[in-house]
Amino acid sequence: MTTALSLISPPPTRYSPPPLIHAGDYAAWYKHATGEWIYDFVNGQITNRRTGRLVPFRVKPNGYLEADVIVKGVRIHVRKHRAIWLAAHGILAIPVDYALEVDHINHNRFDCRLENLRLVRPEENRKNRIRFFDDPAVREIRRRHREESASFTELAREFGVCASTISRIVKRQTYKGVSDD
User: Fold this and answer.
1) What pLDDT sits at residue 6?
2) Residue 5 within any structural domain of the chain
3) Which of the residues 29, 30, 114, 166 could staple to 155 if both were Cys, CB 3.0 to 4.6 A apart?
């Protein structure tokens, strides 16, 4: 029975609990559980079983390796280091706490070997974010960009930082006091 009050009352709001896992973690688990991805934990590589090729991870501006995958018709971004950590530790080890992060122990975001990954709280992971370069390294980055036309991405891979860090060094937004002697 419809009443006048029910016609003017707003519908009840739908409560949506926070997701239990990251979408990328779910997609990585799905690819692992279905056998579509084969993991090499020693070398930090993921191979597509169907094609026999490495999964094409690309470098994002923040320096992480990420691939777009389709799971049940939905495109999801999967970070390589999280996929490898998850495959090695299993579905029950998925970080339910959104505050937990998979950390690269040696600070190199391209090194996704299992022995280089660990699960930490953000405070611990933030300790890794500050990367100091000595003056010769800053000069080398600027020189190679200027003289050899090395891209920010190429230099970032070599020095184990994200491309935006290299960009700031080259544009003198950081390390302003280092001359090009």
Assistant:
1) 43
2) no
3) 166
